[in-house]
Amino acid sequence: MCYKNMENYNKEIERNLYLRELLLGNIQGPLTGIPNIDRPWLKYYTKEELMAGSINKTVYRYLYDENKKYIISASPEFLLQSMVIQMNNFELIATKVNKKSGRFESKNCYGEEKVKRLKKHITNEFKIENFYSDSISDKYLAEISQNSYIVKNGGKIEKWNQK
After folding, report:
1. pLDDT bucket at 45, cuts 50 / 70 / 90
2. What pLDDT score does 29 carry?
3. 152-157: which pairs have CB atoms within 8 A and are 24 or more residues apart?
4. Closest Cα to residue 122, out of 104, 103, 141, 136?
5. Beta strand pairing status for 69-76 and 157-159?
6. 62, 89, 69: which is closest to 129 by C-alpha?
7. 63 or 133, higher pLDDT
8. Structure confidence by residue, pLDDT tens digits, 89-105
9. For residue 72, what are the contacts with CB-CB under 8 A and spacing of at least 6?
10. CB proximity list for 43: less than 8 A, separation 6 or greater
């Protein structure tokens, strides 16, 4: 679930703890005197697991959260940050440049460096299902992707022909 604020998040945890107690028969339902049948799986979780909040995610939310999308760019990170913040479920990997001096604080995130940064960022095994780029310098990312597409001038998207 997506929560607008911590108060709503805490209320959801409190509700789950209450429903767990009902399901375990430790307390009786307020209207019927019998345990509640709402969210019957809650009885299989400890209070600690419910307090951690992970049970509050639906399977759809879990899949959404666990399948991240990345914007990997040679552009300075500070130029792209505000755009990426507004995009839901995207993470930014870009060149770190000092905003005031213009000096590079990392290697330029270009060519093979993009693959290195992605592998450093994602420590476990991963796969890239769909990859889009407007630059042939991204061939290294295209090579490790299941499906690669090049975005041509005018926005036309074509299958990347890797040779």
Report:
1. confident
2. 64
3. 157/132
4. 141
5. unpaired
6. 69
7. 133
8. 788 999 999 999 999 99
9. 93, 94, 109, 114, 117, 118, 141
10. 20, 23, 24
The whole-angstrom distance between residue 99's C-alpha and the CA centroid of its chain comes to: 27
Work out the widest C-alpha separation in the chain, in whole angstroms: 70
For residue 2, give both structure tokens.
């997506």
Supply the pLDDT for residue 77.
Answer: 95
Structure tokens at 23: 């399901």
pLDDT value, residue 60: 58
Query: Which residue intervals of 30-143 are DSSP H helices?
Result: 47-52, 59-66, 77-86, 112-121, 139-143
Which two three-digit tokens encode residue 8? 């709503």
pTM of the model: 0.59
What is the token pair recorded at 42?
């809650």
Q: What is the mean pLDDT of residues 7-36?
A: 69
Task: Please name the amino acid found at residue 76.
Answer: P
Which of these, 96, 93, 97, 157, lies nearest to 126 by C-alpha position?
Answer: 93
Cα distances from 1 to residues 4, 57, 85, in angstroms, run: 10, 5, 19
Mean pLDDT of 115-141: 90
Strands 128-133 and 90-95: unpaired
Tokens representing residue 85 in the block: 């913040």
